[in-house]
Automatic annotation (TrEMBL):
The lineage of its organism: Eukaryota, Metazoa, Chordata, Craniata, Vertebrata. This is PP14C phosphatase. Residues 1-61 are annotated as: Disordered. It holds the Pfam family PP1_inhibitor. Keywords: Acetylation, Phosphoprotein, Protein phosphatase inhibitor.
C-alpha cells in the first residue's frame, strides 16, 4: 500500500508536514516500479475525488428536476386522464385504439371562466358522440373542481 501526502515532496519524504492530507492507495501493477509514484498517486487521488464530486452533483441535479413538479398533482392528473379514457371508451362503445380523435384538454377547461363555459367546451368536443354525455360532463366537472393548471417547470438561471 502506498501513501501520498498533500504537501510538497520534501515534506512527504520527511514523513510529516503537519496538516497535510493523506491518501491511501494500493500499488498499481503489482509492486510500484515507477520513478514518480508519489506524484502520480496524488494526481489519481485528486482525479478520483473530483469524479466523486461530479457524480454527487449529477445526483443532486437529477433530484432537483423531480422536485420542480408537484407529484401529488401529477398523480391526480394521471388518475383523471385514465378515468376520462375509460369513460370515453364507454361513451363511444370502443377501445382506446379505435376511438375517434377526441381531445379533452384539462388545462383548457381550467382556464374557462365558469362551470357553464367548461360544460359548453365539453359538449362541443363530444358533439359526434351518439350516447348521452350529460352524466360524463357533470362527473368530469366535479372531478376537476379544485385542480390547478399545470405549468411547465421553471428553469433556474445560473
Amino acid at each position: 500500500m502506498s501513501v501520498a501526502t498533500g504537501g510538497s515532496e520534501t515534506a512527504a519524504a520527511a514523513g510529516g508536514g503537519g496538516g497535510n492530507r493523506v491518501f491511501f492507495q494500493s500499488p498499481r501493477g503489482g509492486g510500484g516500479s515507477g520513478g514518480s509514484s508519489g506524484s502520480s498517486s496524488r494526481e489519481d487521488s485528486v482525479s478520483a475525488a473530483a469524479a466523486v464530486v461530479q457524480v454527487q452533483q449529477r445526483r443532486h441535479q437529477q433530484g432537483k428536476v423531480t422536485v420542480k413538479y408537484d407529484r401529488k398533482e401529477l398523480r391526480k392528473r394521471l388518475v383523471l386522464e385514465e378515468w376520462i379514457v375509460e369513460q370515453l371508451g364507454q361513451l363511444y362503445g370502443c377501445e382506446e385504439e379505435e376511438m375517434p380523435e377526441v381531445e379533452i384538454d384539462i388545462d383548457d377547461l381550467l382556464d374557462a371562466a365558469n362551470e357553464e363555459e367548461r360544460a359548453l367546451k365539453l359538449q362541443e368536443t363530444l358533439v359526434d358522440c351518439y350516447k348521452p354525455t350529460e352524466e360524463f360532463i357533470k362527473e368530469l366537472l366535479t372531478r376537476i373542481r379544485g385542480m390547478r393548471k399545470l405549468s411547465p417547470p421553471q428553469k433556474k438561471s445560473i
